Amino acid sequence: MIDRRKFFGRALAGASTTMLAGCYYLSEKPWFTGMLGKVEDLTRAAQHLFAGPQTLAREFSKADISPVFRANGTLDPGTPEYQAHAANGFRDWRVSVSGLVDHPLSLSMDRIRALPQRTQITRHDCVEGWSCIGEWSGPQLSLVLAAASPQPKARYVMFYCADPMTAENDPSHYYYESLGLSEAMHPQTILAHRLNGAALDIPHGAPVRLRAERQLGYKQPKYLQRIVLTDTLDGVGGGKGGYWEDLGYTWYGGI
Amino acid sequence: MTADIAKVSPEVPDGVRAALGLAPSGPHYFFYRHKGWVRIAHWINALCLAILLMSGLNIFNAHPALYWGDVSNFDHPSLSLTAMQDEFGAVTEGVTIIGKHQFDTTGVLGASKIDGQLSPRGFPSWATLPGPSWLAMARQWHFAFAWLLVFNAVLFFVYGLWSRHFVRDLMPTRGDIAHLPREIADHARLHFHHGEDAKRYNALQKLTYCLVIFVLGPLMVLTGLSMSPTMDSAFPILPWLFGGRQSARTIHFICAFSFFGFFLVHIAMVVLSGSWNNLRSMITGWYVIRGRRRDHD
Question: Which chain A residues are within 8 Å of B50, Cβ to Cβ?
Fold first, then answer.
C-alpha cells in the first residue's frame, strides 16, 4: 500500500515536472507563442462582436470613489525637461496631433481645458488584477481627432509619453501606446487632466493622460505629449504597438 | 493476457487485482462504458484545467491578494500572500492572511525559494506556469486554454443533450436520491461497485459530476469574463451578478480551488476503486465487470 502511494506520488511529481518543463520550453518557441498570439485575434474579434464600438463602461457614483487610487508604472518621469514643466505648472506643456491627419494640431493645456469636458466616474482595472474607482475629467479624444480630420487610411492612434522606461533616458525607450481608431473614438476615451476634482498629480500622469475605459490600465498612457495617426504599428519601438506589448503583453487590452 | 495472469496467481484477492488492473479471478467480462466523444472531451478537459490552474496561479502572483466588491481595498484584502522582510530587505517569512487571521506559510505561500534564495512570491514556482513570474506569458496560456475549454464544453453540452447522455447517465433519478445515504456510507468505507452496478454512475458520482459540469464550470467562465472591462461594458450584469469585479475575481479563485479539490477526490476515487480498470475505460472505453454477462444487457 505504501509502495503504491509512493509510486503514484512520484508519478504525479514526475508528470508535473515534465509538463512544467515542456510548457516553459514552448513559452520560448516563436512558433508556439505565435499560435498563442492568434488567440488574441480570436478574443478581440469575439469581444468586438459582443461589445461593438459604443457600449459604455459602467459609471459609478461619487460614493463609490476609492479613497486611495493606486498609481502604478512610472510615478515621476524625472527628466530635466519634465521637471522644468512641473516647476512651471505645465503652462508650456503641449499635446500635438499629427500623422495621417489633414489638420495637425498642437494643443496647450489651456486649450484642452477650454474644450467641452466629459466627467466620468469609472473603474480602473490593472492587468495585475486590482481595481480602483476614480472620477476623471477631460475632453473626448473623438473631439480632438475630429478637429484634426483623420485621413481615410488612418487605422491606429499612437500615444507618445514623457516618461523614460530605461535608466539611460534613451528617447527610443519612452512609454508609448496605441489604440485602434474605433476605441480612440469611443465616447469614454478622454484626455483626462483632472482626477477626483483636482488637477492630475504627477504619479497619476500630470498634466494629461489618456482614459480608455474599456481597456486595462497599460492601454491608458500617462504624461501624454504626442498623438500620431498611422496606418500601421510597424516601425515604432518593437513594432508591437506599445511599450508593454514589445515585452510580450497583448496589444488588445480589453481582457 | 490479463486472464493468463489471473490463472497463475489465483490467491491474489480481487481488491488488489482491481487496483493493479488485473482481471478478477472469478467470472468477468468487458463492458464498453465510455463513448469516444466522452473520453476525448474528458482528456481535453483534464489538460485544459491543469494548464488553466497553473497559469492562473502565475497571473494571481502579479497581485497576490483578493478583495470583495468592485474595487481593491488594499489595506483590507480578504486574502493575501505576502512576504515579511528584515531591515536589510532580506525576506524572512512568507505569510498568508485570510481576513484577520495570519498563517506562517514560509517556503510555499508568500515567500518561497527562487535559485536557493527565499523571495517574495504568492504561489511557488513549481505550482505556476510558466515557472518564473511572467504575467504576459501566463495570460496568453490562460486565454488560449480557456478558449479550448469553452469550445470543448460547448461541443460536450450540445452532444450531451442531443445524445441524451446528460438525461440518461448524469441526472440523478429518484432511486439515486433514495440510495444516497447508503452510497455515502459505502464510499466512506471505500466499498465500491464492481459488478453490474458499476455500469452506471452511482448517486454520489452523478451529483458531483452535475455540480462540476453545470455549476462550477459555468461559474468559472462567467467570473472569468467579469474580469474583462470590455465584456463588462457589453454585459454590465456580469460583475453585478457576483457583487463587483473584485468579488468575481475572488469567486474565480475559489472555483479554481474547488476544481482542484474535485481533482484530488476524483484521483483518489479512481485509484481506490481500481486504477487501471478506470483508466483503461477512460482511454479505450472498456471496463471489466465482475460476474457473468446477463443476456438482457
Answer: 19
- Between A and B, how many CB-CB pairs are < 8 A? 133
Q: Which residues contact A118 (CB under 8 A, 6 or more apart)?
A: A137, A138, A139, A140, A187, A188, A190
CB contact under 8 A, A57 and B71: no
pLDDT of residue B6: 45
Q: Quick one: closest CA in B to A27, which residue?
A: B137
Report pTM. 0.92
Q: Is the ipTM of this complex over 0.85?
A: yes
Does pLDDT of B25 surpass 90?
Answer: no
- pLDDT above 50 (res B2): no
Residues of B in contact with A33 (CB under 8 A): 137, 140
Q: What is the total count of domains within chain B?
A: 2
Domain co-membership, B183 together with B276:
yes
Q: Could you tell me how far CA A201 lies from the centroid of its own chain? A: 18
Which domain does B245 fall in, by range? Answer: 13-35+163-290
Share of chain A above pLDDT 70, in %: 96
Is the pLDDT reported for residue A8 higher than 90?
no
Contact indicator for A127, A217 with CB cutoff of 8 Å:
yes
A91 min Cα distance to partner chain B (Å): 34
Asked if A50 lies within 8 A of B231 by C-beta distance, the reply is: yes
Q: For residues A151 and A126, what is the distance between their CA atoms, to the nearest angstrom?
A: 33
Q: Which residue is closest to B63 within chain A, CA to CA?
A: A128
Does B29 map to a domain?
Answer: yes
Q: In A, which residues are within 8 Å of B126 by CB distance?
A: 16-17, 20
Listed ranges A4-8, B25-29, B77-81, B191-195; the one with the highest mean pLDDT: B77-81
Please tell me whether residues B214 and B282 are part of one structural domain: yes
Give tens-digit pLDDT for A191-205.
Answer: 999 999 999 999 999
Helices (H), ranges, chain B: 2-8, 14-20, 36-61, 135-162, 165, 174-188, 203-210, 217-226, 229-234, 237-241, 245-272, 275-283
Q: Is residue B285 part of a domain?
A: yes
Among positive and negative, which fits the CA dihedral B149, B153, B159, B165?
Answer: positive
Cell of A59: 459609471
Specify which residues B286 forms β-bridges with: B32
Instruction: Say if residue B70 is in the same domain as residue B31.
Output: no
pLDDT tens per residue across span A203-248 = 999 999 999 999 999 999 999 999 999 999 998 888 999 999 999 9
Closest CB to A215 among B65, B229, B246:
B229
B59: chain A residues, CB-CB within 8 Å: 129
**Residue B75 falls within a domain, yes or no?**
yes
Which residues on chain B are in Cβ contact (under 8 Å) with A127? 62, 135, 139
